[in-house]
Design brief:
Blueprint (H helix, E strand, L loop, with lengths): L3 E13 L5 E13 L3 E5 L6 H8 L7 E6 L9 H11 E4 L11 H6 L10 H11 L15 H13 L5 E5 L7 H16 L3 E5 L3 H5 L3 E6 L2 E5 L2
Parallel strand pairs: 3-7, 3-8, 5-6, 6-7
Antiparallel strand pairs: 1-2, 1-4, 8-9
The protein binds adenosine-5'-triphosphate and magnesium ion (MG).
Length: 226
């Protein structure tokens, strides 16, 4: 078993552009995150942060390089096995939430059980909604929720299957300071309880909550800030 929750080694990803052009979104990036770390990933727009997060989460195959999540290599197995690695180990919080518009908050939180059965899922989902102050909102669809509430539903959904690794892309990007602090507190608590967090953020205050900050420049690792 690896000591690292996540390890990416010499990862490259180039996207094809129009008229035969190409964009080297991630260029020879290596990253190791130990369990219990809360890592903030910063860097300018377009430097490859979301791309490396998708690669780290088993959602986007790199052109070259290796990815290891909890000792397993998601790109060396078939897509069904890769989906089960994701469901078992990883929670995602996307910048635009990606909630299902016609499901209420409770059913959105329960959506991951489509990928992996969870005994007592409904009680667990209700407990997460309670923890995030959303009990009164559990039967509201996303369009009837505030942005901060939607983000908390997205975080509850990411936590339902008890992942070891939480990948969050600008989880506070759309939030006012109060809602942002609430999300950051929940992420920090998740890490304190032994979970691992990789959070993309432009926000120095958000990065300040992390135990380590790293910065990308043009597709690669630039510096370790702390
Ligand atoms: N599916 C795609 N097809 C083509 N190019 C892409 C694709 N996804 C990303 N890119 C390009 O790859 C580069 C890195 O994109 P990425 O989304 O990872 O940046 P980012 O650091 O997350 O930026 P931001 O802070 O604006 O979210 C950009 O130049 C982007 O235009
Ligand atoms: Mg991005």
């Amino acid at each position: 078993m690896s000591d690292f929750t996540l390890r990416a080694t010499n990862v490259h990803k180039t996207f094809a552009g129009p008229k035969g052009s190409s964009v080297a979104a991630v260029n020879d990036m290596s990253l190791e995150i130990a369990s219990g770390e809360f890592v903030a990933l910063g860097g300018p727009s377009g430097c490859g942060k979301s791309t490396i997060l998708l690669i780290a989460g088993g959602l986007l195959r790199p052109d070259q390089g290796e990815v290891e999540i909890m000792g397993t290599r998601p790109y060396e197995v078939d897509s069904a096995r890769r989906a089960s690695i994701r469901a078992k180990h990883i929670g995602f919080v996307f910048q635009q939430f990606h909630l299902v518009p016609y499901l209420d908050a409770l059913d959105n939180v329960l959506a991951p059980t489509l990928a992996r059965a969870l005994p007592g899922a409904e009680d667990k989902a209700k407990a997460l909604l309670e923890k995030f102050g959303l009990t009164e909102r559990r039967h509201h669809v996303p369009s009837a929720l505030s942005v901060g509430e939607q983000q908390r539903v997205a975080l509850a959904r990411a936590l339902l299957l008890e992942p070891q690794l939480l990948l969050a892309d600008e989880p506070t990007g759309n939030l006012d300071p109060e809602n942002a602090d609430s999300i950051l507190d929940h992420l920090a608590t998740f890490a304190e309880e032994g979970g691992t967090v990789l959070m993309v953020t432009h926000d120095d205050r958000a990065a300040g909550q992390a135990s380590r900050s790293i910065r990308m420049e043009k597709g690669s690792f630039a510096e370790s800030v702390s």
